[in-house]
Amino acid sequence: MATTTTRPQLAYLAEQLDELKKKGTYFKLRVLEDEQAPECTFDGKKVINLASNNYLGLTTHPKLREAAIEATRKYGVGPGAVRTIAGTMRIHMELEEKIARFKNVEACVVFQSGFTANAGTVSAILGKEDFIISDELNHASIIDGARLSRAKILVYRHKDVAHAEEQIASVKDQPGRKLIISDGVFSMDGDIGPLPGLCDVAEKYGAIMMVDDAHSSGVLGRNGRGTIDHFNVHGRVDIQVGTLSKAIGAIGGYVCGSRDLIEFLYHRARPFLFSTSHPPSVTATCIAAFDVLEQEPELIENLWKNTRYWKKELGGLGFNIGGVNTPASETPITPIIVGDGRLTMEFSRELFNEGVMATGIAFPTVAEGKARIRTIMTATHTKDELDRALEVLKRVGKRLGIIG
Ligand SMILES: *Cc1c(COP(=O)(O)O)cnc(C)c1O
To answer: How do residues 292-332 score in pLDDT, each as one tens digit?
Structure first.
C-alpha cells in the first residue's frame, strides 16, 4: 500500500478538488494505449481522434521514428547536463542551424518546450521598468513569462490593433522598453493574429515585436514556415517563437531572431541555463521533421483539404463553429461553441462513448458562457474517418439539443 495519503496539512487540496467535482469541471486523464494517430485507443476504447495537435501526423512518421532510434544508438539517451555546462551536443547545434535556415533568420535557440521558450525569453529580455502589450487571449506561457519579468502588462482586446496602439501610446513617454506580443494562431478559436497591423504599431513606437507561432509552425506559410511567412512580414518581427511539440511531432520550443538575441538568451534565459537539454533522440527527430516539411508538402496540402471539408460539413450540420460572438477560425482548429460548461462536458463525454475523442473546454480556459468542444484536423485523417465522426457528432448533437 502507498505510504503517502493526504495528511491534514494538505487537506485543503482535497477540499478544492471536491469543489471542482460539484462544478462539473473535475476530470480524469484519458490514457492513450497505442500511438497518437487519427484513430487510436484511449481508456480501452477505439476512437476517432479530433483532439491532438499532431497536424501532419509526424508523431508516427517512419523517417522521424528511424531518426530517433538511430540517434539513440549513436549518441545514447541523454545529454547529461544543461547546455551551458556540458550538455550542448553537435546535433543540438545542427537543429538550431537548420531551423534558422528554414525561417531565414540569423540564429535560433531550442528550448525544452514551447512553454519554456516563451516564458524563458520574455522574462530574460524585460525587467520591471518595461511594458508588455499583450493580446487578451495570448497563451499562458507568455503570461507567466511576463509575470516573471515583473514588467507591467497592458492587455489589449483580442486582435484589436487600435486598442494595442492605445495601450502603447499611453506609456510612450515612460522610459521602459515596450514589447508587443501576439500568438500567431490562437489555440482556442483557431483565428490568426493581425501581424501586419501589430508590426506597424511596433515600428511606429519603436517597440520590440514578438510572435508565438506554436499552432502555425508546420501549418501556415510556405512549407509551414508560420505566420511571419503567411503575412510576408519577414524582417519585421524581432522574436519568433515556435514549438516542436505540435506539427513537428516531438517536443521542444525554439526562438528565432538576430544572432545577438540568441547569444543573449544563451546567457540569460533561465530554462536554458538551469534545465537539461533535449536527448539526442528528440533532436534527431526534429531535424528529420524539418526535412519532411521541405520534402513532403503534400502533408500540408492534405491538412488544409481535410480542414476545408471538416469546416464545411460541421457548419452544414448546424453547429456554431465560431464567428458569432466568438472569433471565426481560419485554421485546422475548429471549435464547436456550446456555451454552457456542464453541457459541453457532457457533450464531450457522450461523443467519447460513441467513438469520437474531442476535448471539452470550459471556464477558466475560455470565457464563461463560451465553452466549446475543440476539434483539430490532421493531414492523416481519412475521409471515411471524418464521415464517421460527423455521423456521431450529428447524432449526439441532436440528442443533447445542441443542433436542431
Ligand atoms: C502549445 C502552446 C505553447 C506551448 O508549447 P509546448 O511545446 O507544448 O510547451 C505555447 N504557445 C502556444 C500558443 C501554444 O498553443
So the answer is: 999 999 999 999 999 999 999 999 999 999 988 888 999 99
Pocket test for ligand 1, best of 59, 112, 115 (most atoms within 8 A of CB): 115
**pTM to 2 decimal places:** 0.96
Fold held by 60-295: Aspartate Aminotransferase; domain 2 (3.40.640)
State the angle between helix axes of 298-316 and 383-399 in degrees (0 to 180), rounded to the nearest 10.
30
Q: What is the mean pLDDT of the chain?
A: 96
CA-nearest residue for atom 1, ligand 1, is 214
- What CATH number does the domain located at 20-49+297-399 have? 3.90.1150.10
H or E segment to which residue 357 belongs: strand 356-357
CA distance linking residue 109 with residue 84, whole number of Å = 12
- Spell out the SS3 assignment of 36-93: CCCEEEECCEEEEECCCCCCCCHHHCHHHHHHHHHHHHHHCCCCCCCCCCCCCCHHHH
| Residue 36 buriedness (CB in 10 A; 0-12 / 13-18 / 19+) | middle
Tell how strand 359-361 and strand 371-376 pair up: antiparallel
Q: Is the CB of 271 under 6 A from ligand 1?
A: no
